[in-house]
Design brief:
mainly alpha; 2 domains; 80% helix
């Protein structure tokens, strides 16, 4: 019988709290350090790198504590391993290995996944291409077990190979036809509901200037 994911998360969280590094921290310190491990885990899945973010957050974590950035980094690394069952580098290398093992069929799926962005933008409520692309890249990355960056690159390459145009040029057109159109329609709807024309304020300004030009500046 499989252990529910939520139970596994709780178990690992408790193990991290009871670990050597976890026991030395106050509740507030532990919560902050665990939050940082989550940020770094997402960064590894997103870009495949972690050193820069680890350094930045270790420094920020240590600034208000009685230990230096190096100690903070050690704590974060230890808690990461307890929480996710492997080191940051092991997670990164696992993603690289899965990327190297991709077959032609896996890569070819990038075209279909890229096309699904169009439907997402068209059916979405003021959803931009970039937001939809990030979502679909994450979805594709999870399916293949690779980083979001690699997944996005595969989608872009396959789209251009099949459709003969850049996915980003296509995205600009999607935004123009959907996102911007929806935003403009919303603006006009708000203006009508308020009983004002979207052009009335600019018209009044122009009328006011015209009146001043005719009468000249006021004087004593």
């Amino acid at each position: 019988m499989a252990i529910p994911v939520e139970d596994t998360k709780k178990k690992r969280y408790q193990e991290a709290r009871e670990s050597f590094s976890g026991r030395l921290l106050t509740d507030t310190q532990f919560d902050e350090a665990v939050a940082i491990t989550g940020i770094i885990e997402r960064e590894i899945h997103r870009t495949g790198s972690f050193k820069e973010k680890l350094g930045d957050y270790s420094y920020a974590f240590a600034r208000s504590e009685r230990f230096d950035a190096m100690k903070a980094e050690t704590i974060i690394r230890d808690l990461f391993k307890e929480r996710y069952g492997r080191t940051m580098n092991a997670l990164r290398e696992g993603l690289i290995e899965r990327e190297d093992a991709l077959g032609e069929d896996d890569i070819a799926r990038g075209h279909e996944m890229a096309l699904s962005i169009g439907e997402m933008v068209e059916k979405g409520d003021k959803l931009t291409f970039n937001r939809a692309l990030a979502h679909k890249s994450g979805e594709f990355a999870k399916q293949l077990g690779i980083t979001h960056t690699v997944a996005r690159n595969i989608m872009a390459e396959q789209f251009e190979a099949v459709e003969g145009q850049s996915i980003y040029d296509w995205g600009k057109q999607l935004d123009e036809n959907n996102y911007r159109a929806q935003v403009e329609a919303e603006k006009e709807g708000r203006s009508r509901s308020n009983g004002r024309s979207p052009y009335r304020s600019s018209y009044r300004s122009a009328a006011s200037r015209s009146s001043r030009d005719r009468t000249g500046p006021a004087g004593p």
